[in-house]
Amino acid sequence: MATTLDDIAKETGLSRATVARAIGKYGYVSKKAREKVIAAAKKLNYKPNYIAKSMATGETKNIGLIVGDIQNPFFSTIARAISDVIVPEGYSLIVTSTDEKVEVEKTSIDRFFQKQVDGLILAPVSRSNSDHLKDLVKSEIPIVLIDRIIEGLDVDMIVSDDLGGGFEAAQYLLELGHRRIGFLSDTLDISTNYDRIAGYREALSKYGIEEKQSWVKLGGFTIEGAYKSGVSLLGQNKDITAVIATNNYMAAGLLLAAKDMGIVVPRDISVISFDDIVWFDLCNPPITSVAQDTREIGSMAAKRILMNIRGQRYEKGLTRLPTRLIIRESCTSPRD
Amino acid sequence: MATTLDDIAKETGLSRATVARAIGKYGYVSKKAREKVIAAAKKLNYKPNYIAKSMATGETKNIGLIVGDIQNPFFSTIARAISDVIVPEGYSLIVTSTDEKVEVEKTSIDRFFQKQVDGLILAPVSRSNSDHLKDLVKSEIPIVLIDRIIEGLDVDMIVSDDLGGGFEAAQYLLELGHRRIGFLSDTLDISTNYDRIAGYREALSKYGIEEKQSWVKLGGFTIEGAYKSGVSLLGQNKDITAVIATNNYMAAGLLLAAKDMGIVVPRDISVISFDDIVWFDLCNPPITSVAQDTREIGSMAAKRILMNIRGQRYEKGLTRLPTRLIIRESCTSPRD
DNA sequence: ATGAAAGCGCTAACAG
DNA sequence: CTGTTAGCGCTTTCAT
């Protein structure tokens, strides 16, 4: 059995209350008593029991994180960034993956609720299916949404300038001379994709180009799913000269598909992806990408949560972090 | 304030104990009483408080995971695999990164202890500095070590056949005709590296080759660190014709270094890396690698922990998962 | 400055 | 089948 405050109380002959004050560094304790307690604590190898503490204080010092897939470098970067700000403050990160399924999101939220996390950081699965989030927001638990927007929710949201990013990517290709540009994405129910495509469309229309419906292909959110969508996108649109991928999974699937189909990048097709990751630099060819400030999304979210927990006031709301086009070698002018 | 069992008891006119039994599905409860309770629970939107439950049962339904860096695809894959087995069983995953620092490992373990996790999965930082792990193992908390071995510890360990992998990688290069082979690694204090290098040395000696000291370069465990080590390895050993990288971070650093130094893979130098990841397939050239059964490491660890928690008996000890050489295009015969 | 005691929400004997 | 009661380990008034 682990040693408790009572053990120390017995050992020192003091009361539990005094010992608690000495250990917890609050209230009045005489220097002598404190020293006795510290000594006894060390001798008995006392470790405070957080569960009991939580029970009494209502704080767990745990923050929940719900993302699509913690294995996705985009999300694991965010997880690390969050961790880096909360761990020094005594908090721990509980992570779970939804695979972008609303049901899983709901049960995850429920579980975190029951486990009494002090705050929740969430990349919401669906713009349309979000009533459960409304209830969440009404609860007292601090929450911040990352990467994706839910309309009409009075909550902190930290996202990238996806519309701008989509526009910039498309514009870059258009300037290069491309006129038939595909877009590989997963569900539009994620605002990130929706906005990126909106940006892409804005650019197309600015250049007077009429988008063909088959240019935008929506597929599963795994690399395997993206591969299939990539094959179908490329197969159905032989005349396409460039493709934008909405994230690194989509890019991987697309690149793999192109490779298998004997389509050479950028000779046959130019490619831009969102989600800048190291390996883009090492790809053949190095992939031009729209970089988000991924770590900053995590850091900001964590800081907001902490302020929120501590009851510090700040203006709650939507923050859009700018994106940055990183030009590498996966885009050239079209051949024809 | 959230509704408690007491509220339901009051609402239904039953006792708290009966309500608890109905909710917790244990012990005898009449059908009528159960229905009343369920109805009241729904009406009052009751959510069980896990903290209180933990307090009473001593179980938190939380599993701790301590790795070098959750952002590393190798570790995030493991995290996901663990998650996939424990979440359906009602457990949650608390993750933390050590940056391979012993001090951080110690404080992380302490914190998890205080938070009363039901089990701990750990990629230990150091073979030599592991006394704190001895204490840990003596405690009652279920623990399994992953990816790395600590000698003389009576604990579950799930690792890859690193010696075999190192041997196979080196042998492959030797068969190709290479005679001067570098090895880029981080600290030898991690058994994984130690064993991989041992395998490499075994292969060298089998082929009657005397290793030069400058061939093995140890560097920081980040991509940036690996880049520097890569530059120095390549700079100091102009005659080297092949390099083995001990993990994907090392490979990234090495490849980036080679690129900047105008060294072309595989024309000037052949490269093999451990840690097979998707992007190896998309690299220029696609990287030959020693793949570990990464997901399985996580799954097994999780299953062990669960069995352990449940007091199910099984033979505790070391499991070595076989590695697999995946040949792509980053190795050729040396030019000279 | 210290101690006594109540209470956080739930579980688990035990008695009935 | 149900109710009573005693904790789990810590915090936190309220007295002293």
Q: What class, by secondary structure content of chain A?
A: alpha/beta
Quaternary organization? homodimer
SSE pattern of chain A: HHHHEHEHEHEEHEHEHEHEHEHEE
> Order of strands across the biggest sheet of chain A?
2-1-3-4-5-11
Primary descriptors:
homodimer; 434 Repressor (Amino-terminal Domain); Rossmann fold; 3 domains; six-stranded mixed sheet; 13 helices; DNA-binding
Describe the structure.
The structure is a homodimer of 336-residue chains. Chain A folds into three domains: 5-57, Orthogonal Bundle (434 Repressor (Amino-terminal Domain)), CATH 1.10.260; 62-160 and 294-321, Response regulator (Rossmann fold), CATH 3.40.50.2300; 162-292, Response regulator (Rossmann fold). With 336 residues, chain A is of the alpha/beta class. In chain A, helix 10 (223-236) packs across helix 11. In chain A, helix 12 (278-282) links the parallel strand 9 (270-274) and strand 10 (288-291). Chain A has helices spanning 5-12, 16-24, 31-43, 50-57, 73-86, 102-114, 131-138, 162-175, 191-206, 223-236, 248-260, 278-282, 294-309, and strands at residues 62-67, 92-97, 119-122, 143-146, 156-160, 181-185, 216-218, 242-245, 270-274, 288-291, 318-321, 324-326. In chain A, the strands form two sheets. A six-stranded parallel beta sheet of chain A has the order 2-1-3-4-5-11, with helices on both faces. A six-stranded mixed beta sheet of chain A has the order 7-6-8-9-10-12, sandwiched between helices. The mean pLDDT of chain A is 94. Chains A and B meet through helix 4, helix 5, strand 2, helix 6 and helix 11 of A and helix 4, helix 5, strand 2, helix 6 and helix 11 of B. Chain A binds a DNA duplex (16 and 16 nucleotides) through residues 4-6, 14-18, 20-21, 24, 26-30, 33, 48-49, 51-58. Chains A, B: It holds the Pfam family LacI.
